[in-house]
Write a structure and sequence with these properties.
34% of the residues lie in helices and 30% in strands. It is of the alpha/beta class.
Length: 425
């Protein structure tokens, strides 16, 4: 096997999407000329020891991660030494904040202020100030994502470098997470001899892989329906305006079917995948589904439409929570381009018509773009997060990541950000 490219050549990019139902590892080769990634290998295995972004059994999880990594390495014929991980969970909190700095201080000259252009140091300074929010001791900043800059009275500036003014203001979206959850996830992967090159909030990775520039500019919401959580990222003006986690996912549907029909979780999952429709009106009232019987019990069957009614009720609840979160994004027209749905839950039959009916906007299933070689292998909505992780080194605008590359790794990153914030006060 060939070792992964390291240092500045970064030819190989590796993504590891650790979820509650599946763990997926993808290996890609960066094509710098076109800013695309060629998929070399991908492997998916069932997950264990992980739920709602929290590790419940560390040993089980490490075994599953190792299996996904090994299979992807064999397919790609590459030995992995670094990887970028996805993270989610109801411990993640997001907020918008802003900060400003004076640009042209008095230079001691008699004619007043010295004029100079805005440079990278000014951008770093204003973003450092913007992330200097008071956080509990058990939380750290995961992402600092610039939204826009203001130079004096000029608004909505994407890149102020080279401009002149007296005051620079930066507005950012901060994603914070529980320090323990992040460190435990990183340590599981590091135990396998893999250096963690970064942690990425799942919907941000999915958005990178599926959303077009026009959509992000004019207003679109990415809804990622996972097994135990539903993640949301609202984009407008080519920046994240709001993101959130709803602690309900597609496994809730499986549990509903299991409870209502008094069957096992495995059988309920099988019935959901084979027969369930997100819209009950689009399923058959005549098709009877045979249920497995215990010894001594009579044979039972249930109409397809009845199962679909359980599914529709739960999906309506999830969509109502989604709408509530989108309304918290303090922007006009957040849904010009509607909603893009990703994640394993987005593969539910007839979910797009139900979503359009419930939400009253255009809805489409998200599929990976900017990745070559995914056709018929990894072009479904369940692979969008891991594809976004492959693209992260090319497209990330995260200020925390810039800190990380200058600090030489992920391990000392939290401490570095904390010291930077402490030094500002």
């Amino acid at each position: 096997m060939n070792p992964i490219g390291n240092g500045h050549d970064r030819e190989i990019t590796v993504g590891l999407d650790i979820g509650a139902s599946t763990i997926t590892c993808a290996i890609g080769q960066i094509i710098p000329q076109t800013k695309r990634v060629k998929l070399l290998g991908i492997s998916t295995t069932t997950s264990a020891g992980f739920r709602r972004g929290t590790i419940t059994n560390r040993d089980e999880l490490i075994v599953k991660i190792e299996k996904a990594l090994t299979n992807a390495e064999l397919m790609a014929n590459v030995k992995v030494t670094k990887a970028i991980l996805s993270i989610t969970g109801d411990h993640i909190r997001c907020l918008n904040t802003q900060a400003a700095i004076a640009l042209n201080r008095s230079s001691g000259r008699t004619d007043g202020l010295s004029e100079r252009s805005i440079n990278d140091d000014d951008i770093y300074q204003v973003l450092d100030l913007a992330q200097a929010v008071s956080l509990p001791v058990d939380r750290d900043i995961l992402h600092t994502l610039p939204q826009e800059y203001l130079v004096d009275t000029l608004k909505e500036i994407k890149n102020p470098i080279g401009m002149t003014g007296r005051r620079l203001e930066g507005r950012v979206h901060l994603v914070t997470a529980a320090t323990t959850a992040m460190k435990n996830l990183v340590s599981c992967v590091e135990e396998l001899g893999i250096t963690v090159d970064g942690l990425v909030f799942q919907p941000l990775a999915s958005a990178l892989a599926t959303l077009h520039e026009d959509e992000m500019e004019l207003g679109v919401t990415l809804v990622e329906i996972g097994s135990s959580t539903t993640n949301i990222a609202v984009y407008h003006g080519s920046a994240v305006r709001h993101s959130a986690i709803i602690p309900i996912g597609s496994s809730s549907i499986t549990n509903d079917i299991a409870v209502m029909l008094q069957i096992s979780i495995d059988e309920a999952e099988n019935i959901k995948m084979k027969y369930a429709s997100a819209r009950a009106s689009m399923s058959s009232p005549k098709l009877e589904i045979e249920l497995s019987k215990e010894s001594g019990q009579l044979q039972r069957s249930v109409p397809e439409q009845e199962i679909s009614r359980y599914v529709e009720a739960r999906m309506h609840e999830i969509f109502q929570m989604v709408i509530r979160e989108i309304s918290r994004a303090d922007i006009k027209d957040p849904l010009t381009y509607g909603i893009v749905m990703t994640g394993g839950g987005a593969q539910l039959r007839n979910i797009v018509p139900l979503a359009e009916n419930s939400l009253g906007v255009k809805v489409r299933q998200g599929k990976p773009i900017k990745i070559d070689g995914v056709q018929d292998i990894a072009d479904g909505p369940s692979h969008t997060t891991v594809m976004g992780l492959l693209l992260w080194p090319l497209y990330a605008t995260d200020h925390v990541r810039l800190h990380q590359s200058s600090s030489g790794g992920f391990s000392g990153l939290f401490e570095k950000i904390r010291h930077t914030i402490e030094d500002l006060f």
